[in-house]
Amino acid sequence: MTVKHVLKNKGSHVATIPPDATLTELVDKLAEYRIGAMIVSADGTHIDGIVSERDIVRGLRSEGGLPSFRESRLVHLDRVTVSEIMTSEVKTCTPTTSIDEVMTLMTSGRIRHLPVLGEEDKLVGIVSIGDIVAA
Fold first, then answer.
1. Directed axis angle between helix 99-109 and helix 3-10, to 10°?
2. What pairing do the DSSP bridges indicate for beta strands 49-52 and 113-117?
3. Residues of the chain with pLDDT under 50
């Protein structure tokens, strides 16, 4: 079985957010869509990064991670951008990647969300660890 089969069953919609969006906007979108991560993309088709609930927590915890946190002990989520906390080096797969390969990549890299890239490195979907376990 391949990622293509998983996307056929779950759909290929991917929630994206621009790098200059605020943490407030990110948190609102994650809650609205009931998801744990979003692809960061300026154009909606190419990946600039990925941001997850874990990135938010790490950013809030790390005094060096958020400029507004260094300014005061209160974090102003509307002054912190997604690009400040996102993961820039994003592991990806393709529709033809096998489920076994995806499981290995997710396990070894401790990755819970894996963007799927098609032709010209355009975003065509995303698979989560839950999708892979279900498959």
1. 90
2. unpaired
3. 63, 69-70, 73
